[in-house]
AcrR family transcriptional regulator
Amino acid sequence: MARTPAPGTRERILATASRLFYAHGVRAIGMNRIITEAGTGKNLLYQHFTTKDDLVAGYLARVRERRADAIHRALDAAGDDPRARLVALVGELGDLVTRTGSRGCAFRNYLVEFPDDTPADDAAGTTDAADTAAGADTPAVLAREHLAEVRAIIDGLVGELGTDDPGRLADELCLLVDGLFMQAAHRDPADVRRGADTAVRLTRHLVGA
């Protein structure tokens, strides 16, 4: 008879996996380590997440939801002025990368590890592509969708400014955001803080705030 999972088991597994994947990378963390650190049995883990890819997707979906909530809170607090909202967006992302333990962007990190959409379960490439092609919420899809959502926010706010070349301005702001996350992965915390402050200052200059 199958064991009934205790309340909170799924969240405990997901929280443990999220911490480990973000700190060490997806490739470096096997399911056995997650089982050990979550204090759960193998069968219970696979009741909730049938493959490692499912668990990675859960991790990225969790980060995506929290990131989206934080971004929208920052935008709402900035009011209706698109200039102020763009500054607030970059400021929120700057605060994110300066938090203790930051290793940059979970979505960008995943796509660097798996640039060819190889499933996390099978980096050697032996999984049948048909098994994952139809999956709407694969890790790669979740990662790219989140990055596209942030770009759409920037495009929309820049469009409200009425500049002569909105595409160029949006590209420049996205480059600032990319730089924030890139430096967070390998720079000293003091350098990351200075970089975040510089990004906000440059955003103010670019949008005329």
